[in-house]
Amino acid sequence: WRLDRAEQERRRAEEIERLARGARRVHPRYLSYLVGRLRERLDAVLINEQAFDPKYSNLGFGDYFGDPSAGHLGWALGASVGYAMGSGRRALVTLGDGSFMLNAPLSYYYLASAVGAGALIVIYDNGGWLETEEAVREVFPEGVAVRSGHFPGTTFKRYEIGATVRAFGGYYEMVEDPTSLEGALDRAAQE
Questions:
Q1: Roughly how many angstroms between the first and final C-alpha of the chain, as a whole number?
Q2: CB-facing half-sphere around the CA of 145: CA atoms within 13 A
Q3: Mean pLDDT comparison of 85-94, 131-140, 163-172, highest-scoring range
Q4: In the predicted model, what is the mean pLDDT of residues 147-158?
Q5: Interacting residues of 93 by C-beta distance below 8 A, sequence separation 6+
Q6: Which SS3 state, helix, strand or coil, does residue 13 take?
Q7: What predicted TM-score, i.e. pTM, was given to this entire model?
Q8: Euclidean distance between CA atoms 89 and 94, whole angstroms
């Protein structure tokens, strides 16, 4: 069976309300919803490397670029510079904390500041390379890592991402309280 658009929207709104109400941590789907609303207000293109869930946004043709088919970690920040330079349109980049590191952020911030093509970047922080852990779970569901719950090399200590951003004159804010998220995104959009 197929749900009509109004029913899909109603269910999505109920889920977002449930995720926002009384949550102690930012849920990725709730963040995707708020990022989607921000993208609409900015009329930005959304360049997504893994983290953002597009079903929580109203996207039209040319509003969204997701993972390319040939590899997918480390491309989004560079792509945002090229897109902004070529189109003149603002880019909003979503990625995980692990993919952020694989994107060579120092090179990105240098280039983006040199050519005036910076993006608004939203980092979904899950403390590691979740994609790697999920791949191990999928390929070796009966393996030692799954049984023990220990996935070597997939987690790391929280590091000061903001130091890199601020070194190039960027704005950074760490948000862990869901009630502060919307205001933080608005502040970042004004920078």
A1: 45
A2: 14
A3: 85-94
A4: 86
A5: 46, 47, 48, 49, 76, 77, 80, 119, 120, 121, 122
A6: helix
A7: 0.87
A8: 16
Q: For residue 50, give the nearest of 108, 119, 125, 109 by alpha carbon.
A: 125
The SS3 call for residue 48 is strand
**CB-CB contact of 46 with 94 (8 Å):** yes
**110 three-state secondary structure:** helix
Rounded to 5 degrees, φ, ψ at 171 are -105, 135
Q: Which two tokens stand for residue 41?
A: 């207000």
Q: What confidence score (pLDDT) does residue 2 get?
A: 65
**From the CB of residue 28, how many other CB atoms can be counted at a distance below 10 Å?**
18
Cα separation values, 59 from 16, 36, 38, 55, Å = 18, 8, 12, 9
Query: Residue 71 region, left (φ>0) first, then alpha (ψ -120 to 50), else beta?
Result: left
CA distance 32 to 34: 6
Q: Would you say 177 and 27 are in contact if contact means Cβ atoms under 8 Å apart?
A: no
Q: Which of 130, 179, 155 is nearest to 26 (CA)?
A: 179
**Alpha-carbon gap, residue 40 to 63, rounded angstroms:** 9
